Amino acid sequence: MAIHHAVRVVNHHHLTVTPSEPNTGQFLRLLHGDISAAISTLLAHERYDTPCSVFDVRPTHCMRLLDAEAQASHLLYERLNPVAAGLVREPDHMPGLALGFDHWKTGGLAVKRPPLYFSKNRPEELRLELTPPPLLYRCYGGELEKLVYDMVQLERHGTQALKRAFRGRSFLGAQKIRRLHPWSEPVSLAEPKGQSIPRFKRGAADLMGRRQDDEARRESALWHGAYDEALERHDARALRRLQGEVLALQDEIVFPYGTYEMRLRHHVPTAEPDADSLIAAPGPLLAEIREELARDAALRCDARILAERRALRANTELACEAEAEVITQQDVLDFERSSVRVVDVGARPEPELRRRFDRSLPQGPAPRRIITLRDHRRGRPPGSDPPR
């Protein structure tokens, strides 16, 4: 799995990857399993209550980025998400490690094994390779310096557009983010139910990826029709087998390319993708793009590629300007209204420690923060710094 970019936004994360084989489901299961278990272990170590589940019941939303413009604009949306959420004024102000586009030039970074949850059997250090998305790399003819420069400029342009959209409203700030209680949740509207969730994106417009692409939607509908037909024939064939009927080999049911669960669990055969397929056929890998550029050096300065690059920058800038207002309204995470803070912070008592099952109400002014200990041991682990 090639990793391109990742952003943490306090209560969720964004991740852009390219699979080299059909293993996205397994990758996400392992990733989120480790994240959930590690956070629960850390909360227990810090003597906080641990949730039944770190992630909610909604499935992970995956979106296919179908062209270079879609990859560039979505990477920009990811990178700017902490700003759009009202957390920090600049993406690099987010606490912890921020993965910027310049990591593409260094090839990645070394990740040390965390002191908790991960056993000593795992390596003390792993190399996290970070590479640009293949279609975006092709659009720049392999000129990585130029690609990183343009993405940084687009990031600055998008940051300014979001700040203007906030119209003087304050950002939470890195210091307050570090002091958030682990159980603090933002005040936000529930997502509307009953609406289809887009799975594909083309072009730079619609940074949030909320609109359906008509051509992709038509192809997706045809794919699901072919899948349902194959599944119905597969079930009928299985029933005939249970009834003792001898089946001919030519009755084998072939599922459309892209079938995942039936292929993994029941080992059904799948067809080859159509040559003109938009969404079912896998996209090129970065190694394939590099080979293509090495074979034909003229592609690096091809007029069509240069025009595509100019259009990408212009369309992404226009999308930032046009959609900044909507993005700030939809993505803002309001932790200020969800906390117990009042305006006169200086007159309020210090944070109050409580035991796990203490449900009594505070007497007098509410404390700045209530910190719930996980058990009845006194104090906190050595070196631990509770949020205040």
Question: Could you explain how this protein is built, in words?
Answer:
The protein has 388 residues and is mainly alpha-helical. It has three domains: 2-205 and 300-331, no CATH class; 216-283; 344-388, no CATH class. It has helices spanning 24-45, 68-79, 81-84, 103-106, 134-139, 144-166, 174-178, 214-242, 261-266, 286-295, 303-331; strands spanning 2-8, 13-18, 64-65, 108-112, 125-129, 200-201, 352-354, 370-372. Strands 1-2 form a two-stranded antiparallel sheet. The chain has a two-stranded parallel sheet with strand order 3-6. It has a two-stranded antiparallel sheet with strand order 4-5. The model is unreliable at 339-347 and 375-379 (pLDDT under 50).
Write the layout of secondary structure elements.
Layout: E1 2-8, E2 13-18, H1 24-45, E3 64-65, H2 68-79, H3 81-84, H4 103-106, E4 108-112, E5 125-129, H5 134-139, H6 144-166, H7 174-178, E6 200-201, H8 214-242, H9 261-266, H10 286-295, H11 303-331, E7 352-354, E8 370-372
Parallel strand pairs: 3-6, 7-8
Antiparallel strand pairs: 1-2, 4-5
